[in-house]
Amino acid sequence: MEFFKIGRDIPFMRYALVFNVVSILTFALAVFFLVTRGLHLSVEFTGGTVMEVSYSQPADLGQVRGTVASMGYGDVQVQNFGTARDVLIRLPVQQGKTSAQQSEQVLQALKSASPDVVLRRTEFVGPQVGQELASDGLKALAFVVIGIMIYLSMRFEWKYAVAGIIANLHDVIIIMGFFAFFQWEFSLSVLAAILAVLGYSVNESVVIFDRIRENFRRYRKMSTVEIINNSITANISRTIITHGSTQIMVLSMLLFGGETLHYFAVALTIGILFGIYSSVFVAAAIAMWLGIRREDLVKGGRKEHDASDPNSGAVV
Asked: Is this model's pTM higher than 0.85 or not?
């Protein structure tokens, strides 16, 4: 299905150098903010107190969040747990206060606003658990990256694997750079979004690489740059349909999903936008500069039909 078809190939690779300079600068800024500012880690990673409270009526999360924030908890997480009447509250560690003291003070404040609130449970999440989560998250990220490299190497060729993984890491670092610069809370849901972006972004690169391989087999007289431009142009309609549909769903989570899904949707939004950009101006351009050739993908001595040459014969 195509909304429109472009008659002439767009010379994307003519501007590849300019856009990749922009990518390098953006990537460097993201690394700089990660080093100087660091990530604003959530309670899952740093440790803290987890409270579960229940109301007789559906809870007003905004009121609960405001009540807890008025006590000096700027990084509090408030979300429904199970039903609309059950609320899960995550409190960061406060110096000089035990977990029991924190939960008692918060419960008293909540009862002042709504006398029907009942404490269901409270527990302390230690920093050691947070360190384990951070370590497991980094391992998951590393395994995904390694898996993508192996997949691209087997399906295409090592030059494509290198180009694809650089483009993927480009997206991941830039997402984390946004969170470091704005000091948005980095939680397990954000980490899940980053892992999703890795798979989502590589899919776009694979579609373009597939078209490049197909065009190398079809057009024997076209140069590598012309092949890449033709492949990207041919996929524009598909890119608009796919990414547009996905972005509509993510925007619905961003606008109507509440605080719980907010940063998850923000990470996905950044990842989708940069995923499109990196697949065209990072992955394809790096593959071009690494010297991809028809011989890298088309093996054997078969002579194939050249669709660009009307005098060429059929496949032998």
From this structure: no
Q: Which amino acid would we find at residue 26?
A: T
* 51 neighbors 88 (Cβ within 8 angstroms): yes
The domain ranges of the chain are 12-40+130-305, 48-125
Residue where the block lists tokens 């429109």: 4
> Which structure tokens are listed for 13?
């690779």
> Are the C-beta atoms of residues 71 and 103 closer than 8 Å to each other?
no
CATH of the domain spanning 48-125: 3.30.70.3400
Distance CA 196, CA 267 (A): 10
pLDDT of 186-238, one tens digit each?
Answer: 888 898 898 888 888 888 888 888 888 889 888 888 888 999 999 999 888 88
Gap between the Cα atoms of 19 and 25, Å rounded: 10
Rounded CA separation 218/3 (Å): 24
Question: Which amino acid, 175?
Answer: I
Nearest to 261 by CA among 195, 192, 159, 161: 192
DSSP string, the chain: --S---SS---GGGGHHHHHHHHHHHHHHHHHHHHHT--EE-HHHH-EEEEEEE-SS---HHHHHHHHHTTT-TT-EEEEESEEEEEEEEEE--TT--HHHHHHHHHHHHHHH-TT-EEEEEEEE-HHHHHHHHHHHHHHHHHHHHHHHHHHHHHS-HHHHHHHHHHHHHHHHHHHHHHHHHT-EE-HHHHHHHHHHHHHHHHHHHHHHHHHHHHHHH-SSS-HHHHHHHHHHHTHHHHHHHHHHHHHHHHHHHHHSHHHHHHHHHHHHHHHHHHHHHIIIIIHHHHHHTT--HHHH--SS-----TT-TT-----
CATH entry, 12-40+130-305, from 1.10.287.130, 1.20.1640.10, 1.10.10.10, 3.40.50.2020:
1.20.1640.10
Q: What is the pLDDT of residues 264-307, one digit of tens each?
A: 999 999 999 888 888 888 888 998 988 888 776 655 444 444 54
